[in-house]
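Title: Comparing notes on inverse folding

I've been comparing how different people in this forum approach sequence design from structure. To keep things fair, I'm posting one structure and asking everyone to reply with a full sequence. Here's the target:
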């Protein structure tokens, strides 16, 4: 099974594809821990259908929820190369994404 990895300064999350929604300009995921708005994170994304990975950065724009139900985190991608954007578009429209 493929996994998604997100890292912030003191946090590292490894998420299954079913826990992540990829959009062409961002990503949404569930987390047991909250993230502050404007937290920058690096991400490694990989499709279960393709070779290679996409490394990119993003910024948290929303984090809602609580300790009992978990947190829904929304991020937007920043400073994407054309190649990374093309790969993310493929991931965003992939049935497994």
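Reply #1:
Here's my take.
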């Amino acid at each position: 099974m493929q996994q998604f990895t997100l890292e912030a300064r003191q946090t590292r999350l490894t998420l299954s594809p079913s826990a992540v929604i990829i959009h062409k300009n961002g990503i949404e995921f569930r987390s047991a821990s909250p993230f502050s708005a404007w937290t920058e994170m690096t991400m490694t994304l990989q499709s279960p259908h393709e070779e290679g990975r996409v490394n990119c950065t993003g910024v948290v724009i929303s984090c809602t929820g609580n300790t009992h139900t978990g947190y829904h985190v929304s991020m937007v991608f920043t400073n994407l190369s054309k190649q990374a954007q093309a790969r993310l578009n493929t991931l965003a429209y992939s049935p497994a994404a």
